[in-house]
Each structure stands twice: as structure tokens, then as C-alpha cells.
Amino acid sequence: MKIFRGSFIVSLIALIIAFVYAGWNGLFITLILAVLEISLSMDNAIVNARILERMSSAWQKAFLTLGVLIAVLGMRLIFPLLIVGVSAQIDPISALKLALEKGNPNTVGTYGYILHHAHPQIAAFGGMFLLMLALGFFFDERAHTWLKIPEKILQKIGNFPAANAIISIILLLITSEFIAKDAHAVLFAGILGILTFSFDGVIGAFAITADPIIILLGLGVIGAMFVRSLTLYLVQKGTLNDLVYLEHGAHWAILTLAFLILASIKWEIGEVVTGLLGAVFIILSFISSVIYNRNH
After folding, report:
1. How far is CA 259 from CA 129, 198, 211, 277, in A?
2. Is the pTM above the cut of 0.70?
3. Judging by beta carbons within 10 Å of its beta carbon (0-12, 13-18, 19+), is residue 23 exposed, middle or buried?
4. d(Cα 87, Cα 113) in Å, to the nearest integer?
């Protein structure tokens, strides 16, 4: 608990700020984004831990401090505003001002209105990014399978050349043709998502909310702090590798989120549904990992 104490304290402060800033809805979305970030960054934590094991204590602290600063200020604050600026064809400073003003989505020129009309492209981009990420995990041969039948089937599909890209493109074509109103815009954004799927979890976050403050709190503050703590925990204990099904649960949550995001191009899907489904997969995979360890 000593390793995670700072993360819990910072997270509590961030959640209080989210509640003051945007009420219960903002608090809940912040939690969803934090879970998304932690789930997406487990592989990074493992890689970082292996790097840190070869460093001195002083370099470990420098690596983690600088990494958190870049994650919070760079990828979680500046980069999201660049995404909004490109999507809405405005500069990042104007995007930030509009974001803080919020505004009625039905009023032309407001941040809400701009993002409402840019949502199909953002959803296509984020949905394909998450789909490629999840399929990439399940298509690889792994020592353990959690949901035996579907994961075995996905592993066999993954043996075909370029299976990830082919399946993603087929799903994107179906989405753009039968779900989207502007097929060309959604198709173009989705192709960009496929080409840059390894970019960062913030892409997926923008399909859930476009509020830069909530993204900063959920991904940058809570998410980055817990990923930092997980990395330290891996270095000192190494027990995260013993939770053999946790990554599986996280990627099933990511795969579910990808489909929900693509569906949101046409249908309204609440954050409650998105968050609960993801949490269920992660909790069940954690419980399954504990049971596996007790039986072995």
C-alpha cells in the first residue's frame, strides 16, 4: 500500500476537482477514463519495469518523474486540444477557451456544437484505434486463455496474414456504409485510426468525452499516477505478472468499448453503460486470476 498511497491521495483530490467542475457525471467519466488509461497502459508498465530494473535508484526516480510530467502535460492536455483543433478546424487556444465555456450543443459556434458535429469522425478514429489494440492482443499466441472458446478462435484467426488490419477495415466499411450519415468522413477518420492505432489511449478517451479538463484528470492525473505506481510495484514485487487473466479482461473491455464507440456514431450510448461493461470484465478477470493462483 505504501507504493500506491500517493496515487490514492492524488486520485481523491482529482475526483473532488472533477465533481466540483462537472458534478456527478464528470466524476463518473473521470473514473471511466482512469480505468481506461490503467488498462491500456499495463503493457507499458511491464516494459517500464524491465527498463527500471537496470537503473540506479536516482535514475529510476528521474525516469518516473519526467515520464509522469510528459504524460500529464503533453499527451493528456496539449495533444487532446490539438485533436479538437484539427477536428473542428480551430487553433488549440481557441479550442481550450471554447472548452471552458462549454456551451449548448444546439447553438452554432459553441464547443459543444462543434464537437457534436465532429463526433462521428472522432468516434471512427477512436473506435478503430481501440479495435486494433484489442485484436492485436487476442491474435497473439499466449500461454493462458481466459474466455477459452472465443480467445482460441481469435488466436486461430490471427494466424492469417494481416488479419488485424483486414478485419478492422471490413468493420469500418460496414460502419461507414450502414451506420454513418457521412460515409466518406467516417471512412477517412477510421483509416487514420487504423494507421495510428498505437498512438495513445487519449484517442479512445476522446470518443467518450472531449472535455480537456476531465481528460487531464482521468488520464493524466489518476491514470498516470497509478501506472507509475504499478511500474514501481512490478519492480519491487513482480506480482502483477501472476494475475494471468487481468490483461485478458482489460482487452475484452477495450474490445467492447471499441464496438460501443462505433455504434455511438448513430445511436446515443451513455457513459454508464460503457463504464460498467468495462469494469465488469476487469473485475471478473481479476477474480479469475486470484482463483487460478489458489488452484495452482
Report:
1. 11, 18, 22, 12
2. no
3. exposed
4. 12
